[in-house]
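Hmm, how's this folded?
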Amino acid sequence: MCNWKSKYSSYVCNEPPLEGDRDGLCILHSTRDDKDLEAFKQKVEERIEGKDSIDLKGCYFPEGFDHTCIRINYSFGVPVPVDFSEATFYERADFGGAKFSGEADFRGAKFSKWAFFGEAKFSKVADFQRATFSKEAVFIKATFSEWAVFIEATFSEGAGFSGATFSGGAYFGEAEFSERADFSRATFSEGDFVGTTFSKGANFNDAEFRKRVRFQSLELGNERRPVLLGPGSSFKYTRFLGEVVFQNVDLSHCSFLHSSIDKVDFRYCEFGKEEKSFFIFPPRKQNVLRDELEADEAVGAGLKPAPTVDELDGDEDVEKNLSETDTRFFPFTSFRVRMTKGEEKLREEKYEPVRRLYLELKRNFEDKKDWNTAGDFHYGEMECRRKMYGWLGRNILSLEALYWTSGYGERPKRASIVLALLVLVAFPLLLSLDVLVPPLLFSDRPFCFGNWVEDLCNSFWYSLEVATFTRVTRIGEAMHVAGWNKWILVLESIVVYVQIALFALALRRKVKR
């Protein structure tokens, strides 16, 4: 009797041991590559002719044996359960177009070379638990009517599930994909990617998640095995129709462009972090999407240096590339106010989808009362809007002013420092210029430092009164003030009160978090 033992059951093989096999294994299970291939083929066909099942459990298909030459017509379907569990395919395994009407058991199977299951149909459970794919595994357009089990499966090279349909549950828990995994255009009814590793990223573009699908860590006592979505992971144009959960997942390498993520449940996930510094303020880490960083790179590479005034002078080719309103230049510099049409199109094409994605993420986290993360995504949304427009467009829409004065209402520290600079420095100096400027313009009038210091102190206290609402400047009152100070008084009241409002808004968001 054969000495082969199964790892998963108390299976007993009644075949006689192969002569010369040191392990006492039969011709089906012997790992000797010099065994008689013709006798091996006959024994395999004998098992295939079984009425109740096709039992090839633990079978070793040696080098030089093409298993497709055995008498089994996959195109008409296999009406009985097929058991290839713990089998070893030394040569390529081609099950393309196979129709498995019964259960297909490939648990622990080893595919040393190319494994092809393209357009295969599994009417019952397809079990590839702990299977090892040393080369490329192809399941393109395969159909799984019931459970598809790939728990702890190992894919050493590419894995293609493009266009596959998982009508039952798709279980990839603890599976390891060493190279890129392709699930583009796949359809999932239910899916489980618990503790799954995608070392080189996963492509879920145009996929559809209809019911419950989970991407979350595997908890084993005190140990936690997180889902790894490596560089280049993508969920572009993916349709999240059911209950999709991302829990404890690092999404810094993932793209969700053009996907409906308003119903996706993100729990304790990490998005990309970027340290953004602002003037004298220390850098602050905030959530930023990979898509925005890629848009920055694409726009930076796609924009040409702005043409100077001299380049425009008489250069019809350059002028032809600009719209009528795009030819506005400052006479004293080469600084361009507007972008070319090509640049506008490029910026809108790259930043508008990212802006919408930030907007959906902001609403998603606001619904969860996660104000801190929602605030970061609001900041990202406004940044994309600002980057979409030229200098003139940004300032007309006041995006530039919002950015510098309060970080789009998300940075109370920035707003407070700007307010302090306006009240304690800028406007006191402006109000005291009426004492300082005339002596500089008319040399026969001596400059009196004492008068200027006195006027500066008065202006300082006046700014404090405005900022603390103890003095409100009225237009009629300001008109009686001599010189340009009357306009500065009105301007200060407006600007300071607006900045106070921005500070209050940013502070409210901060406290709300």
Notes: The two ends are 71 Å apart (CA to CA). Confidence is low (pLDDT under 50) at residues 322-337, 440-445, 478-482. The first strand starts at residue 54 and ends at 55.
